[in-house]
Design a protein that fits this description.
Structural class: alpha+beta
Order of helices and strands: EHEEEHEHHHEEEHEHEHEEEEEE
Length: 380
């Protein structure tokens, strides 16, 4: 029997720094992708349950050497949630295909506004890609939004245009001190801060990050161990600048709410899948099944790299760069993926043996069933 969990990360008033390939320290992302979350989580798991336990855990995931293994669990990337009174708005990445019944016009007066909607509230996401689809009233609301007119339609009520209200991004000054000369250098680091509730504060809503975890088979002990590791990760912090207290959060480990159950198991069969986590595979047979039919596929490929946080050699080294399918990619079949070995060459002997241990990035995708518009040959 399978099991799903919804995990909310509440950062409170804490700042966070989420780095991305191609941006400097003065900038930050607003969330953490699935491969970064997996790496941080498993690293904490190793410290809590030691080397043998984490090696046993990773040995049961599919890799290039052992592609037929089934993963013990899969997880999505983190996405933003907002709490307003008694309701919680969960945002999901907009699939890279048009929704059901999207207009076939080539020159739409609202397309620029539509294209800016990188994330959709769960209510709108479900309606557009699993339910009745895109409506005339949706079109009018997008036109009104383009023309900066007020509206009280379903898109506005669902929070479609309020994504950026969930957080603010700023910069904090930092001083670096040279260990030898003691010379100082001023620099700035980008931080993201989510809304938080406070007694007497004018802010009436709060926000944070959430992600989904899927266990193909229910495993209570594994789930308990993962929760303990995630709790410790919350104490230490997620992302960069942890020595300054950034990235600390509290964990809410929840059973899947009923609204999400309908998303996971829609009442009628759907035709495609939308990734909500990063996906990587190097098997030509698997990839050909996913991306040969161009009218059924839409994807974005991103580069993933980064530094090894705790190198046994004592030197800070970069992981090998790898390219992955991004969240929102659409495939005609459900993608699975693998762990990809990104161990630096410095950690491998001339005989091809690991000096310490392999280093992986998680390319095991998590996806949701969707239906796309018949006009999706003209992709957004």
């Amino acid at each position: 029997m399978s099991d799903w969990k919804l995990v909310k990360l509440n950062f409170g008033r804490n700042y966070a720094h989420f780095g991305e390939v191609g941006i400097g320290m003065e900038e930050t992302g607003d969330r953490v992708r699935s491969d970064t979350l997996f790496s941080a989580w498993v690293s904490t798991y190793a410290r809590l349950f030691e080397k043998d336990a984490v090696e046993e855990l990773l040995a049961q995931f599919p890799t290039e050497k052992n592609p037929k293994h089934l993963p013990l669990f899969q997880l999505s990337s983190t996405f933003i949630y907002r709490e307003e009174g008694d309701r919680t708005i969960y945002y999901l990445p907009r699939p890279l295909q048009f929704p059901i019944d999207y207009p076939k016009d080539n020159d739409l007066d609202f397309f620029k506004t539509y294209k800016k909607l990188n994330y959709l509230p769960l209510e709108v996401w479900q309606r557009w890609y699993q339910g009745e689809g895109f409506t005339k009233s949706d079109r009018q609301e997008l036109i009104d939004q383009t023309n900066k007119k007020e509206s009280d339609g379903l898109l506005h009520k669902a929070g479609t245009f309020d994504y950026s209200k969930a957080y603010k991004i700023g910069q904090e000054p930092k001083i670096a001190v040279d260990r030898i000369t003691r010379a100082t250098n001023l620099y700035h680091t980008g931080f993201v801060q989510f809304q938080w509730k406070q007694n007497g504060d004018e802010i009436k809503s709060s926000s944070g990050l959430y992600f989904l975890v899927y266990f193909p088979e229910k495993q209570e002990q594994l789930a308990a161990n993962l929760y303990a590791a995630l709790y410790l990760l919350g104490e230490e912090g997620l992302g960069g600048e942890r020595s300054s207290g950034a990235g600390r959060f509290e964990v809410e480990w929840l059973d899947l709410p009923e609204t999400w159950t309908k998303i996971i198991n829609p009442p009628k069969p759907l035709t495609h899948y939308c990734s909500i986590g990063l996906f990587w595979d190097n098997d030509p047979a698997n990839l050909n099944q996913l991306i040969t039919a161009k009218e059924d596929t839409a994807y974005e490929i991103i580069e993933r790299g980064g530094w090894i946080s705790s190198s046994p050699s004592g030197h800070q080294l970069r992981r090998k760069m790898v390219r992955m399918f991004a969240e929102g990619s659409v495939f005609p079949k459900q993608p699975l993926g693998k762990l990809v070995d990104v161990t630096p060459d410095e950690f491998i002997t001339p005989e091809g043996e690991y000096k310490y241990h392999p280093i992986y990035r998680c390319g095991i995708g998590l996806s949701l069933p969707i239906k796309i518009s018949d006009s999706s040959k003209s992709k957004p």
